[in-house]
Amino acid sequence: MVLRSFNIDNEAIRSSQTSNDGDSTFIWFKGGNIVSIVDTTTLECQDVDLIASKAQFTSDQSLPISVTINKAKTKMAVLSIVEDQNLYLNFWEKGQPIVNIPLATCCPKVVASMSIELSLDEQTLFVSGCDKMDINEGRPIIAALTFDHKLKQKFCLQLTDPKMRNVFKLKRLPGCQEDILLVSGFHSISLVSYNSKTGALQELKTLGGLHDGEIFDFAVYENVIYSISGKDTYIHKY
Question: Helix or strand or coil: residue 20?
């Protein structure tokens, strides 16, 4: 067995995220405003500076929140906080300058956001969150945007269950040949479909009463949804 390693230059690993569908991509939130795309088969990495123009901001520090990347590792979107808690969508395409757009410009109804996802055909970016900065008073929302430098909104859907209040985690259902999204909020997880031909989102079903509080994360394995909440001491199985 051959083990590989790489020098992290004494930088702390702030956070990390693997890409969908079990491929070999690992996204490393390296620190500062750097996101690194790591190929886990070779451990080769490419650093991406999230801030395109230092003159655009009074600070050069950006905190990545969520990221999604295509399988070819040539296009990536990053949701981040810059400066005074301002949310930005950052779009990177290999060989092109990075684009920074305020979330309010891309998705006017999404005021707070924590999770993004990519469609099956890699043409649509999904942005989730709620309509108020105070998530305890919000309503859950999902927006569909073009996955390009324009980040143009195509559709916006407000979920029907007011008790969800916010979307903490958004994931595409693995192994499915269509875009079925799982979105978690307070207490519940909703299933939402996306039609790539019409560009429309449609809520299919809400799985209510799974937890007493926020569902921060979940995983799907062999058609079973496992979810966790900071309010509970158990892993819920559905």
Answer: helix
